Automatic annotation (TrEMBL):
Claim: Oxidoreductase is one of the keywords in the record: yes
Species of origin: Mucilaginibacter paludis DSM 18603
GO molecular function: oxidoreductase activity, acting on the CH-OH group of donors, NAD or NADP as acceptor
Entry annotated with the keyword Transmembrane: no
Lineage: Bacteria, Pseudomonadati, Bacteroidota, Sphingobacteriia, Sphingobacteriales
Record protein name field: Short-chain dehydrogenase/reductase SDR
UniProt keywords, alphabetically: Oxidoreductase
Assigned protein family: Belongs to the short-chain dehydrogenases/reductases (SDR) family.
InterPro entries: NAD(P)-bd_dom_sf, SDR_fam
Length: 263
């Protein structure tokens, strides 16, 4: 994109960990951090379709406590530290239809993926950041945490709302230890996951993907810019927030939604 920023190797010498970093927003962030000079570790269940050979890939499921502990041990043994943590793993795993169709299993799975995976990873890595008195943690949330749609994403919205509150609380706790904690809340983003979501709902409704996309945009109140975000646009914001240019920023939740949320 022509408006991409040049970070002039600003992150050289930094170790960055990106969860869910093999596709969509996570991969775009991992690619951008690599371009800015960071050594990037990506954690995901598999390599994805187009792995970046410059990334250090580790397989694992961070919604599982034992997997997460093993991954952190491996990271510490191999790299010694983590300077930048991007908690990007998340996803909509529960059915739409409101409270009555949601079981305990649906709630537990979405809370593990969208909230507790970040809480767990922060808890394991914060001692390293505290010891070096430096670090940045970014929680990738969603505008669904502010304006949930009960018909489609009730559990997801609740989990992201909780993530927002947790992130703000954590930022206050660790700010005087040299650690910055920030939240980034994208609106609809043009990823493979979003395309699959729209295709599924379009098929169920018997309408075209274009009609489903417009229905979704209308349902959330419209996007003044008239389109979904590109993953690289979210990555640009994240790369700025972890850079020295953002050294006084902590505790904030940055919306990147094309003007959707009327705040």
């Amino acid at each position: 994109m022509q408006n991409e920023q040049n970070y002039n190797n600003e992150l050289k010498g930094k170790i960055a960990l990106v969860t869910g970093g093999t596709k969509g927003i996570g991969k775009a962030i991992a690619d951008k951090l690599t371009q800015a000079g960071a050594k990037v570790i990506v954690v995901a269940r598999n390599h994805g379709q187009k792995p970046n050979p410059e990334h250090h890939f580790l397989a694992g499921d961070i919604s599982n406590a034992q997997d997460t502990e093993a991954l952190v041990k491996e990271i510490v043994d191999k790299f010694g530290k983590v300077d930048i943590l991007i908690n990007n793993v998340g996803g909509l795993n529960s059915p739409g239809g409101g409270y009555s169709v949601l079981t305990d299993e649906h709630w537990e799975k979405d809370l593990q993926v969208n909230l507790l995976s970040a809480v767990r990873l922060d808890r394991l890595l914060l001692p390293l950041m505290t010891a070096q008195k430096d670090g940045v943690i970014i929680h990738i949330s969603s505008t669904s945490g502010l304006v949930p749609q009960w018909e489609a994403n009730l559990v997801y919205g609740v989990a992201k709302s909780a993530l927002n509150t947790y992130s703000k609380s954590l930022s206050n706790e660790v700010a005087n230890k040299g650690i910055r904690v920030l939240t980034v809340s994208p609106g609809p983003v043009k990823t493979e996951g979003m395309e699959a979501f729209l295709n599924g709902y379009a098929n169920n409704a018997g309408i075209s993907v274009e009609q489903m996309t417009q229905t979704m945009m209308d349902k959330i109140g419209g996007i003044p810019m008239g389109r979904m975000a590109e993953p690289t646009e979210v990555a640009e914001l994240v790369c700025f927030l972890v850079s020295p240019k953002a050294s006084y920023l902590t505790g904030a939740n940055y919306l990147i939604d094309g003007g959707n949320i009327p705040l």
